[in-house]
Amino acid sequence: MDRPMNCEILATCSALGYLEGDNYHKESDCLESVKDLIRYLRHEDDSRDVRRQLGASQILQNDLLPLIVQYRQDKALFDACIRLMVNLTQPAVLCFGKVPDDPVFTHHFMEVTSHLQAYKEAFASERVFGVLSETLYNFLQLDWEQRQEEDNLLIERILLLVRNVLHVPADPCEEKKVDDDASIHDKVLWAVHMSGFDDLVKFLASAQSEQQWSMHVLEIISLMFRDQTPELLVSAGHSRSAEEKQRDLQELEALRQKENAEKRSRTLQRGTRHSRFGGCFVVQGLKAIGDNDVIYHRRLHKFKSYTHDEGKAVRRVPKRNQRALECKDKPRSALNVRLFLREFCVDFLENCYNRLMYLVKENLIREQTQQHDETYYLWALSFFMAFNRGNDFRADLVSETMSIRAFHFIERNVTNYYEMLLTDRKEATSWSRRMHLALKAYQELLLTVNEMDRSHDESIRQSSNVIKSNIFYMMEFREIFLTLLRKYDETKQPLTYLKDLVETTHLFLRMLERFCKGRKNLVVQKKRVKRKKSHNRKKQLVAETSSEALAETWKIVEEELRLSESLTGSIVPFDAASEIPLEEQRIEAMVRVQDALLAHTGPEALALLRAARSVWPDGNVFGSSDVEPEEELELLKEILHANLPRSTTETLVEEEDDGAEFEEEELESIQVSETDFNFKDFIKRFANPGIVRPYLFMLRTYSKNTPHTNHCVVRMLHRLAVDLKMDALLFQLSVFHLFNKILSDPAAEAYKELVTFAKYVLNRFFSVVAQNNKAFVELLFWKNVGAVREMTEGYSKDGEGKKVAWSEEDEEELRTLYMEHRDSDVPDIVETLLPLLSNNSRTRRQVVTQLVRMGLVVNAKDFHVFPYRKGTGIVLWTEDQEEELQMLFEEFKDSDDVLGNIMKKVTAKRSRARVVDKLLSLGLVSERRELYKKRRRAPGKSSGVGMTEEEFLSGLTQDSPDDSVGGHDDDEEEEDDSEDSEEDEEQEHKNSQNVVKRSQSSHVGVDRRADVGAIVNSLMQEGMSGPLLWIQNCLNKTANDREDDGLSQPVPLVPLSEENEEAMENKTFRKLLGKLGMRAPANEQETFWRISDKLSPLQLRSAAAALTPGEDKAECSEGLSASNAEEDEDEKDTSGEQRAQALRALLLARKRKNQTKDAGVCERLSYALQNKILDSSAAVNMDADAGEDSDGEDISAPVKRRRKMLLIDDEDDED
């Protein structure tokens, strides 16, 4: 800004007033001058010259603060001064957008920061905060109806002003304080406390009517505790515990041992001669610049530190490769400040924490906050939960953030921060700090859950188990540590981040291991990406097809077209939904015709050609309208041999793994499944050089680490080297150099765990060296699991594991053999080609892969690599097996169950379908019906000959449920002609069991309905008709779904209303669910009751019908059952008389047949008898339909069919 403007600013500042002693005298136009300054700040340039000039003139210290203290009753002036101070105290980062790179703007940035630090020192006054507290208190006394818009704006500006003042960073050059000395930030906090402003902050956090200030309150609280740690606040005012004293004594003892060891080494290194006579030595085996050995001119005790790099210029490390800067340790605040902050934490946890965190979380989810405001939430979660753990842990004080939602929120933010860390490289430091905050919050959640496990309250321990089961179940919560360790970057993430990551991983693994030990099995979620195949496009050949193959294809297609009489109908040669114009789709239609010809589907190709001719008649591209059949054949032949342009996006071919399978990829979907968790398998995933390296990087600073951090590192390395027996993973030169440093450390006694582990790894290495002399070379490289196995168990031979090359002669041989046997009837063409190849070392996978690469087949899945069923390991029949099958068939061909006896005696166990197919191919049977099991009738009962009338009548009128079921089973045996015999037979067996259950349901369900009805009536009297109706609807819906889908899966009963939730807690209601066949939660991983997958749709509907009680219905059902019983008795008498008459007529007919041998008379009598019995059966059916007993109908129907079949058999015997 130019010079005249500076004069205007100075004149405006002078017009505010003047300070005389402790009194400030304002000018008449003071308010207008304040508004002018606000206007100047609004129009300042990028260098922030107005802000810098106002800071240099100390307008805030000399004018604005005295104005608000003495003239607080002037509302307009007070409001204008607050507005101006909010603008002046704005953080420098917000003023410049970021920390500038330009030297000039960096100077301006530092100047603005220095002015802000001066402002903060001026605000360390009880009078200033007393005025702000009193003003804020007066506004908060008003109800929200009485407040005006200006009042709310002033409240927000006061909160922003306090936020800006607390945000000002400390000056490291000026504030070189020691512990327990008050800094400027402590003075401001003490002024806040003495003025009562902290109590107003707690009121704003807890009041329901002030929830719109939740984010401002959380920012102020986080800035108040900026320099504090939860451990220091917990211990404030308390004497040191015995554990703390013991820990300090151990640290002092380690330092004392290290100092004594250094003194002893210096004493031994001190020689008898004067230091000017150091000596001159020749180092044998160590070459200098030339061919001679190195000449050493110093004392021998310093030779250990000798290096060729001495005297060389230190190589500058590029900025992008420099390590991330560590956060400096902050001095401990004054005791009185820590005491008042401790009391603030206690009150905040008891009265404000849960409510404030809920409001902030809702605002973050609904995106009603500013960018990066979630960092305040993450900080508050980790800080106050850590304070709660150390200060008489109470789970109810932090119940809002102890949930799976909190874990999911943090995990999602960690993932987002890591992605931004990779993409936004300019702001990588900021994203790294946010990521560290999220990791600390995740660590504190795990520590709190671990603390809940040690609670004396059983309900808290159960809640902890539920939370852990959900955490360990979700795949994202288990995989997060593997990802963070593998992606650690020391140039972007500081060592403190790695320390927290290592300790959090140790805690998680320890909790997971303890959780698995108490259970036989743990079911966890598993996700995998499934690549779906394109179904809307036909498979197309990628490679060029030879002319010989095209000629062979045309011969097959031409013969097929000449013999075919029908064409495929309703074929559309274009895509109406495509964005490509219709006229431009002619080439695509031509390609479709060519593909149909290559696929040997001649009728489809001809139908496509004729359909395309009707769509595009112009130009006779697809032939003229009056084309002859022979001309059509010639046109198809030209299309087959034409080189048509194909779109590169039609087929997406991807080689998976070793190239064995090619498939078209259209999209990817994530499949979620469940699997049994194995802790050892999970630890194996940490056996990776990318994960081991961060641990070793952390181990380099073992002397500065805490004992707990060193324990976490050694415990993970112990899991890999000892538990998994992968100690060779640590056989690396840099690791051994670190171990040598630890073993030679004078204070090594203080690191006993590290020393023991280092000795173990070294002993293992030298034992491996005795067997493998190449182990020294392996020290130069990091090794994966495969290299570790080879190093310890032996190296593989040269050429193993490599892909076998195919020469041009081999490819031509494979192409010729494939073309010869492609149209043969062999079940597996690959097995046929393998013995015919000149190279007998080819495997099936290699042949299939090469066929796909040569373009002879489209997909490796076209070959059934495993054509046999699971459980059998046989594909082809050998000659001995065929002879054995022929012998068994000759032995049992006259038995009642030929196939069953063969299946019992055959040596090579195969499915029934495979055996039937082989019998048909050998010509031993002409059709499958010959292998059906024959029914053996009881002697004397196959016909009416030799039987008395009473015996025959009792045999026909026998009406037990067992007979009906047996007849049904016989019918099923006759219909056993499915190709997939094993699966179909199991399904038919299930169907037969369902029939048995249906036949018995009418007898078993009576008692059950009586018990259920009593329970339902009692629940209805308690007013639970709504939950009963809910259960009934769930049962009916599940029954419909199982009938439609044909699948049975457990269906959870999720209560969505309070009425249903209360019903699920009722013991009588749960007893009813158990009576109906519902399943209670099996373990803590299940929360809801479930409809069992073993219940059939009929059973589900029966259970649903049992939930409809009522006295009227009971009386009605009793009346109906009584009337049905009477009708059944009458029908039984009538049908009995008709059966007796029919049987007498049948016996009389047979008697006449024996005497007169008149077949015509017997035929007429049999026909008349059949009509009488069928009429009687129809009458029974009509009467049965009039009733409501459906069970009786299901039972009687098979009996009637059986009677009819017996009569027909008798008629055949007479013929």
TrEMBL record:
<comment type="similarity">
    <text>Belongs to the timeless family.</text>
</comment>
<dbReference type="Pfam" id="PF04821">
    <property type="entry name" value="TIMELESS"/>
</dbReference>
<dbReference type="GO" id="GO:0003677">
    <property type="term" value="F:DNA binding"/>
</dbReference>
<dbReference type="InterPro" id="IPR007725">
    <property type="entry name" value="TIMELESS_C"/>
</dbReference>
<dbReference type="InterPro" id="IPR006906">
    <property type="entry name" value="Timeless_N"/>
</dbReference>
<dbReference type="GO" id="GO:0048511">
    <property type="term" value="P:rhythmic process"/>
</dbReference>
<dbReference type="Pfam" id="PF26019">
    <property type="entry name" value="HTH_TIMELESS"/>
</dbReference>
<feature type="domain" description="Timeless C-terminal">
    <location>
        <begin position="1016"/>
        <end position="1101"/>
    </location>
</feature>
<feature type="compositionally biased region" description="Polar residues">
    <location>
        <begin position="992"/>
        <end position="1003"/>
    </location>
</feature>
<feature type="region of interest" description="Disordered">
    <location>
        <begin position="1183"/>
        <end position="1215"/>
    </location>
</feature>
<dbReference type="InterPro" id="IPR044998">
    <property type="entry name" value="Timeless"/>
</dbReference>
<keyword id="KW-0539">Nucleus</keyword>
<feature type="region of interest" description="Disordered">
    <location>
        <begin position="1104"/>
        <end position="1139"/>
    </location>
</feature>
<feature type="domain" description="Timeless N-terminal">
    <location>
        <begin position="24"/>
        <end position="283"/>
    </location>
</feature>
<dbReference type="GO" id="GO:0043111">
    <property type="term" value="P:replication fork arrest"/>
</dbReference>
<keyword id="KW-0131">Cell cycle</keyword>
<feature type="compositionally biased region" description="Acidic residues">
    <location>
        <begin position="1185"/>
        <end position="1194"/>
    </location>
</feature>
<dbReference type="Pfam" id="PF05029">
    <property type="entry name" value="TIMELESS_C"/>
</dbReference>
<feature type="region of interest" description="Disordered">
    <location>
        <begin position="954"/>
        <end position="1005"/>
    </location>
</feature>
<feature type="compositionally biased region" description="Acidic residues">
    <location>
        <begin position="969"/>
        <end position="986"/>
    </location>
</feature>
<protein>
    <submittedName>
        <fullName>Timeless circadian clock</fullName>
    </submittedName>
</protein>
<dbReference type="GO" id="GO:0006281">
    <property type="term" value="P:DNA repair"/>
</dbReference>
<dbReference type="GO" id="GO:0031298">
    <property type="term" value="C:replication fork protection complex"/>
</dbReference>
<dbReference type="GO" id="GO:0000076">
    <property type="term" value="P:DNA replication checkpoint signaling"/>
</dbReference>
